[in-house]
């Protein structure tokens, strides 16, 4: 058996997240279904991140244990041909961008050293209807300097229980955030990008951090409030959950 690590990008707009769920269209479930039908063998993917419904990815990673004999350097092209097969109601919103042969026992999720997410905001008085699935569109001007001033309080190892949505699996809420930055794109000042890297993330953690920072940018919170929110370990003290469509899984580190 071969252990193949895939890098996958997808538009998550039409999916109920990455992880397979009975009766629901998910990225993992559809990939397994389509690839399995094309190659006429069982296909089971183990993803590095359980992205939520509507969340996108540039660099999702997934391991595939398979007897398929396709040379590893040809897997992206062959898999993308399979995924786009019209006879199988092909998928035009999922693409395998890279493949690598890994040692026995390697796992996309459990061997990960961290992840990077990007959250995109369009801050303009004129919303763009064509970006509604890919940006949080905020018409009130945001104070980027205040948002950036709150970022250092998030960096480091903390108990981030305040940034976890209800319904999360039981377990430790301690995580380490390596970096957090916010900037306006130089080529388009209406575009704001929040980039966060960490060891791992709780359910909806990035979206709640983003919501809390946006409330800071709107003047509803002071930057130093972020420290008190984290220390409280209370979800009620943090901000709203930012919309799913603005979130992109950018890279998984090994």
What is this entry, summarized?
By secondary structure, the protein is an alpha+beta fold. Helices cover about 20% and strands about 30% of the residues. The chain has two domains: about 1-100, Pseudouridine synthase I, catalytic domain, N-terminal subdomain (Alpha-Beta Plaits); about 115-254, 2-Layer Sandwich (Alpha-Beta Plaits).
CATH architecture of the largest domain: 2-Layer Sandwich
Q: Please count the beta strands (DSSP E, at least 2 residues each).
A: 10
CATH 4th-level superfamily of the largest domain? Pseudouridine synthase I, catalytic domain, C-terminal subdomain
Global shape: globular
Oligomeric nature of the chains? single chain
The SSE string, one letter per element, is: EHEEHEEEHEEEHHE
Describe this structure in words.
- It is a single chain.
- By secondary structure, this protein is of the alpha+beta class.
- It has two domains: about 1-100, Alpha-Beta Plaits (2-Layer Sandwich), CATH 3.30.70.580; about 115-254, Pseudouridine synthase I, catalytic domain, C-terminal subdomain (Alpha-Beta Plaits).
- Helix content is about 20%, strand content about 30%.
- The chain has helices at about 25-40, 75-85, 145-150, 205-215, 225-230; strands at about 1-10, 45, 55-65, 95-100, 115-125, 135-140, 155-160, 175-185, 190-200, 245-254.
- Strands 1, 2, 3, 4, 5, 6, 7, 8, 9 and 10 form a ten-stranded mixed β-sheet that branches.
- Strand 8 (about 175-185) and strand 9 form a beta hairpin.
- Helix 3 crosses helix 4.
- It is globular.
- The mean pLDDT is about 95.
């Amino acid at each position: 058996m071969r252990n193949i690590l895939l890098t996958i990008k997808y538009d998550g707009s039409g999916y109920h997240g990455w992880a397979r769920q009975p009766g629901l269209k998910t990225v993992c479930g559809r990939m397994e279904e389509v690839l399995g039908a094309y190659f006429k063998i069982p296909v089971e993917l183990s993803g590095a991140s359980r992205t939520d419904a509507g969340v996108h990815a540039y660099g999702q990673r997934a391991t595939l244990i398979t007897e398929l004999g396709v040379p590893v350097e040809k897997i992206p092209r062959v898999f993308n041909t399979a995924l786009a097969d019209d006879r199988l109601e092909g998928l035009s919103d999922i693409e395998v961008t890279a493949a690598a042969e890994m040692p026995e026992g390697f796992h996309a999720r459990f061997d990960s050293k961290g992840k990077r997410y990007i959250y995109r905001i369009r801050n303009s008085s004129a919303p763009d209807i064509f970006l509604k699935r890919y940006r949080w569109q905020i018409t009130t001007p945001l104070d980027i300097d205040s948002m950036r001033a709150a970022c250092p309080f998030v960096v480091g190892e903390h108990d981030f229980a305040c940034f976890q949505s209800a319904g999360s699996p039981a377990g430790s809420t301690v995580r380490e955030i390596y970096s957090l930055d916010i900037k306006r794109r130089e080529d388009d000042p209406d575009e704001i990008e929040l980039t966060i890297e960490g060891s791992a993330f709780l359910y909806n953690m990035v979206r709640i951090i983003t919501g809390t920072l946006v409330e800071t940018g709107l003047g509803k919170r002071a930057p130093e409030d972020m420290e008190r929110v984290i220390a409280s370990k209370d979800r009620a003290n943090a901000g709203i959950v930012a919309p799913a469509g603005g979130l992109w899984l950018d890279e998984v580190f090994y």
